[in-house]
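Example record

Each entry pairs one chain with its bound ligand, flavin-adenine dinucleotide.
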Amino acid sequence: MEDTGAFKDLGFVQLNRMLAPFTHAGVGGPAEVLAEPQTREDLARLVRICSAQKVPLKILGGGTNLLIRSAGVSGVVLRLAQPEFQHIDITGKTVRCGAGADTLDLIKACSRAGLGGLESLVGFAGTVGGAVVNNAGDERNGIGQLVRRVEVMEQSGQIVLRDSEELRFGDHSSNIDEPVILSVELVLEPTAETQLVRRLRRALIRRMAHQPPVHQSIGRIFRDPRGLDAADLIAKAGLGRTKLGAAEVSDRNGNFFLTNPGVTTEDILRLADLVRERVQERFHVSLEREIAVW
Ligand SMILES: Cc1cc2nc3c(=O)[nH]c(=O)nc-3n(C[C@H](O)[C@H](O)[C@H](O)COP(=O)(O)OP(=O)(O)OC[C@H]3O[C@@H](n4cnc5c(N)ncnc54)[C@H](O)[C@@H]3O)c2cc1C
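Structure tokens for the complex follow.
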């Protein structure tokens, strides 16, 4: 960015702030501008300045499905880290939730209220906004099917509601393309406590059996090619436990990489390139990266 002057006066930005502490893998360089607005008005001002000055604006959720290069990110990185964007309100079966809320906090609040449906999200971190834009979950239950409405901010700073009829959720994807998801309305199912506990436990056991430990790994690296399973292709190509630097392909699920101490974003990206080449050579299938790279 040529001039960061317009942002300096905003009062809720930091210049040249390291982003590694805000990512799941704990890696990545600084943001030219890191913004953590306190109110929607703050956010609208920021979005308008970015649009007017053609400065790229990126949203950092829990940083569990993105990698930030060591060189850092030019432009503005936004975190919805203030209470205005993290509320969770439950009325009957309807849950209204700020996009910056932790998915784990959401699951806890809904479980306490006797509401089920979010079990496929248990066991990995991230924010509600990140989960909705990526339709996170498992192969049968993406969060998208529970979404009644999302509130988004357009490039003009205007807030609009998008109802479920206009929303499309696919395999770890959605058609939400506005710059910022602000909040989400979900409809969940009243569920008996014993049943909820059983479902949550089953989901956790399943995850532990099929994925490496959450705090030492990053994923999902690749999208599943149509009709195929990326982890399966990686395993069949004999790539489990392949290492580059401190990044290592998990032998439990090849679509997750272990992040050993000292790992860098570049280790992970080089390993992803190697895996992609080997799978291409062996099966003539081109793996597309799911994890975002900044
Ligand atoms: C160990 C581990 C296990 C995982 N297991 C699963 C799994 O079983 N199923 C699954 O689906 N995923 C899984 N993931 C991937 C990831 O956790 C999910 O995709 C998660 O929902 C991403 O949320 P986040 O807040 O961390 O997003 P981030 O990683 O911060 O961001 C991902 C993308 O979402 C965008 N984004 C984030 N917030 C907003 C917002 N408010 N508005 C607009 N865009 C936004 C970002 O700009 C970025 O492009 C796993 C990840 C890890 C590390």
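The radius of gyration is 19 Å.
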